[in-house]
Amino acid sequence: MQEAASEFTTLSTFIPSRHKRILPSMPAFYPDDAKDIPSSPSTASPSTIADADRYSRQILFPGIGESGQKRLRHAHAVVVGVGATGAATASLLARAGVGHLTLIDRDFVEPSNLQRQMLFDEDDARASLPKAEAARLHLARINSSVHVTAHTADLVPHNASELLSDAHIVLDCTDNFETRYLINDLCVRDARPWIYAAAVGAYAATMNILPPGASTLADTFAYAPTACLACIFPSPPSGNVETCDTAGILSTAVNLAASIQVTEALKFLTAQPHLMRRTLLSFDLWSTEANNALARSEISTTKPRPDCEVCGQRIFRALSGDQRPHITLCGRNSVQIHEHHRPLNLTDLKARLQPLGQVRSNGHLIRFHYPPYTITAFPDGRALIQGTTNVGLARSLYARFIGS
Ligand SMILES: [Zn+2]
Questions:
Q1: Distance, CA of 139 to CA of 153 (rounded, Å)
Q2: Which H or E run includes 104?
Q3: Which of 109, 271, 314, 323 has the fewest Cβ atoms nearer than 10 Å?
Q4: How far is the CA of 174 from the centre of ligand 1 (A)?
């Protein structure tokens, strides 16, 4: 890099000054012109980018075209979970021009996320920004015409109806079956399509769920319903289930799951549900079969299971359950406590904790260091207790420092 810079510096002495202004990629080497360059790109007033330019290649694709692009502008997708899959999915949706995105995530950006969570950068991790909020800021720079609503919240029975109520489609980018069953209950109840996505190790899987009932897009023609999540998985996988903690994760597997998920969503949002896949599709990107083909499996989801408790009998246990267990998060030695659905006043809490140890805040959360534990508290009353997987201990730290 040093060599290249000195080469440019030398070269610049031979370029007449009147030509320097047409070389926008070289401003740093022209001190005379520095005053013309905005000090921060984020504060410069953005010039409008015409849709015809931005989406020209996507409109050329016959599956989208002008009419599909218009439909996308009026579409609303909810992304639940803005970790690895959610960051990729939200980015793809925003770039495609899906007009309204709602992002829901309970977590904040950490250094270990940067390997695979494509929307975030080192500044986000240093500032411990909530993922939904950090994603919203980055998406605004990618496509300012997309309206992004960010919720730093845990999707739970008491807020799920409200958070998902306006969505044409819901995209599951979570890492746990508990939340997926909640999404499944709500979407089957309200006849709202959703798409399951999962990635762990080199494994990626997705499945479209088209519940029976009216379409969330009024003019989308009728489609035959598919099996729901509970038809395929009547109970969550048990036993020694691999997680990001035990199996690690390849960024490429995440991005494959997100790509397939978003492609299927685009089919629905452009009123082409008949093109949507009706299988549980999975890939193992690191393995090959005996015939040298990539290891993959595809299970039909064409027929809902008649005795399915959710879509057959319409019993919505996940949605009615208000006693959720404490959750140990993927990728961290930590416990989330969310016992009291009441807001926290972060200013008061900060003042209370300051005499007891180091406290940092960024306007969205408070982080309190109490070695060997770190407690991160959110305005919605949640706290992440890092440094333990012992629920009892986490609960007592919560009661002691946040309140019982
Ligand atoms: Zn079902």
A1: 19
A2: strand 100-105
A3: 323
A4: 20
Q: How far is the CA of 366 from the centre of ligand 1 (A)?
A: 41
Instruction: Output the CA 311–ligand 1 centroid distance in Å.
Output: 4
CA distance 191 to 64: 24
Residues pairing with 99 in the sheet: none
Residue 79 CA, ligand 1 centroid: distance in Å: 22
C-beta of residue 163 within 8 angstroms of C-beta of residue 153: yes
- pLDDT per residue as tens digits for the range 139-162: 999 999 999 999 998 898 989 999
Q: How many domains does the chain have?
A: 2
Cα 234 to middle of ligand 1, angstroms: 8
Residue 43 pLDDT more than 50? no
User: Are 335 and 314 members of one domain?
Assistant: no
Domain that includes residue 119, residue range: 53-320
* 150 CA from centroid of ligand 1 (Å): 30
Distance 177 CA to ligand 1 centre (A): 15
**Cα of 317 to ligand 1 centre, how many Å?**
13
The CATH number of the domain holding residue 168 is 3.40.50.720
> Do 335 and 274 fall within a single domain?
no
Is there a single domain that holds both residue 287 and residue 331?
no
Predicted confidence (pLDDT) per residue in 169-189, tens digit: 999 999 888 899 999 999 999
Q: Per residue in 58-112, pLDDT tens?
A: 999 999 999 999 999 999 999 999 999 999 999 999 999 999 999 999 889 989 8
For residues 133 and 233, state if they share a domain.
yes
* Centroid of chain to Cα 139: 12
Measured in Å, residue 155 CA sits from the centre of ligand 1 at 21
CA of 209 to the centre of ligand 1 (A): 9
pLDDT digits (tens, 9 = 90+) for 195-251: 999 999 999 999 999 998 867 776 666 788 999 999 999 987 764 456 665 578 899
Evaluate whether 322 touches 329 at the Cβ level (below 8 Å).
no
